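Section 5.1 Outputs to date
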Amino acid sequence: MEWKRLVQFALQGSSDLEQYAILLIRVSIGLFFAISGANKLFVAGGTKPVYDTLVKAKAPFPRQLAYFVAGVEFVGGCLLTVGFLSSAACVALLIDMTVATVTSAVSTLPKGLSPLNWIDDFLYLPEVLYALFFIWLICSGPGRFSVDYWLAGKLLG
C-alpha cells in the first residue's frame, strides 16, 4: 500500500507539507528583501546603485525614491518574514519588482533575440521570479505559521 502513497505524492504532492513550503518561501524571500533593504538604508552609500538606476531611468525625485524603494524592501521584507500583513507586503514588493524589471532588468537582456529566447531570458531574471513568488504568496496566503494566521484566528474565531 505504501507504493500508492509514493505514486500519489509524486503526482499530486502533499497538502501535509504545503504549509512548510509556504513558510520556507515566505521567510526566505522576506529575509532576502529585509537584508537587501537594510543594506541600502543603513550602510553608507547603500542607496547609490538604486539612485543611479533611477537617474538612468529618468525617474522623478530619484534620491527620495531610492530611499522609498529601500524602505519598501526593508519593511516589506520584515513583515513578510514574520507573516504580518503579508498580502500587503507582497503587493508592495510586487510593485517594486515590476518597476525594477521595467526600468532596469529588461535593459540587461541581449538585443536581437528571437521571441522564444527573449521569453527564456526574461523568465530567468531574478526580479521576475520574485514577482511570481509574491503572486503565489498573495494567492496562497502566508500559511499557518504566520502572525496573519494567528491574528485571523483571534479576530474571526
